[in-house]
Amino acid sequence: MSSSSSSSLYKQLGLGAGSPVSPSHLLLLVLGAGFLALTVFVVHPNEFRIQSFFSGGGCGRPGTDAVDVASAAAAASPAKNVSGGTTGDAADVRVLVGIQTLPGKYERRNLLRTVYSLQAREQPSLAGSVDVRFVFCNVTSPVDAVLVALEIIRHGDIIVLDCAENMDGGKTYTFFSTVARAFNGTGAPRYDYVMKADDDTYLRLPALVASLRGAAREDAYYGLVMPCDRDNFYPFPPFMSGMGYALSWDLVQWVATAEESRRDRVGPEDMWTGRWLNLAGRAKNRYDNAPRMYNYRGGSPPSCFRHDFIPDTIAVHMLKDAARWAETLRYFNVTAALPPSPLYHL
User: Fold this and answer.
1) What is the rounded distance in angstroms from the CA atom of residue 168 to the CA atom of residue 271?
2) Is residue 314 within 8 Å of residue 292, measured between CB atoms?
3) What residues in the chain have per-residue pLDDT under 50?
4) How are the residues of the chain apportioned to helix, strand and coil, as percentages rounded to the nearest 5?
5) What residues form the membrane-spanning segments (predicted)?
6) Could you please report the per-residue DSSP string of 173-228?
């Protein structure tokens, strides 16, 4: 940029005589801005893509910190189809994960936001996407009402259902039926699957998406089939464990309108969801993810639903305290990306 052109720009900006900004200062500012742009878009393009992904990708609200997560295609093998139904193609799959929790569990939500945001950062190349939302019923505490409102403003990842807080009194039914209505209009995000999950479940989202990518997109029920040991457990009709199970979008819409689910909501929520589907002859395509979905073992004896960690895990359940979370995250090497710094000593 010549001295005459910088002087012209100086005048266009209304910086006349007596201004503290001289033409030479302006020239330095322009050159500095150009260097910064070169650094962001050419030298560090990946960092720019990651920030763009969090600010506007997926089905989240633009400009929020809603946890919108995507994964690469080859993370894991497909789930087992226990009914022999047809499966979907390799196209992208969209999943809404509703983590059922309580308004006052701020620490757990913060942990899960961190864990799933890191998974998103490690998988910037999108092949399928997952939206993670925290789900609870009406907030009755004045303290929680203020603090939850701040979370919603900041993160945009909370769904507050119109129900009294409960575990087995209809909360899951209300979640599915609310989602069916909220995302059924023109321009609303279109999900292939909606998953209900517990807040003590660690989901490895790239493995989850890769597994669902090979599943049917209609009349599908995905999770860990219970009872898994028919010799030693009472023979309940089959259902998916409440640690985390998914319904295809058509079944979510069916739950919202079916007489079977509307009139029979009170009972163990995972068993009752399976009961609705069994009574109506629905969910012909069932995907059993044993042994990739399981309970944390700890000091308990192994069983068909509880065992040691395995590398190709989709979900670990029963992480009731910080020590279990730390052990689980350590096994899966979640902190491997921690950069060295003189500011912390771990």
Assistant:
1) 10
2) yes
3) 1-21, 26, 29-30, 33, 35-65, 68-76, 85-86, 88-90, 125-127
4) 40, 15, 45
5) 25-43
6) HHHHHHHHHHT-STTS---SEEEEEETT-EE-HHHHHHHHHTS-SSSEEEE-EE-S
DSSP state string for 276-301:
HHHHHT---EEEE-TTTEEE--TTSP
- The token pair at 335 is 């902190």
Q: Which residues pair with residue 329 across a beta bridge? A: none
Instruction: Give the span between the Cα atoms of 234 and 128, in whole angstroms.
Output: 38
Residue carrying the six token digits 């992208």: 92
**DSSP letter (8 states) at residue 84:** -
229 CB-near residues (< 8 Å, 6+ apart)? 303, 304, 305
**What's residue 53's pLDDT?**
26
pLDDT (0 to 100) of residue 67 = 54
Give 66-289's CATH code, choosing from 3.10.110, 3.40.50, 3.90.550, 1.25.40. 3.90.550
Amino acid (one-letter) located at 40: V
Task: Name residue, tokens 């073992």.
Answer: 297
Half-sphere exposure of 319 (CA within 13 A, CB side): 24
- What contacts 60, CB < 8 A, 6 or more positions away? 66, 67, 68, 131, 156, 157
Per-domain residue ranges of the chain: 28-57, 66-289
CB 109 within 8 A of CB 344: no
pLDDT at 75 (0 to 100): 38
Cis omega before residue 291 (within 30°)?
yes
Q: What does the alpha-carbon distance between residue 204 and residue 202 come to, in Å, rounded to a whole number? A: 7
> Token pair for residue 61?
């609200």
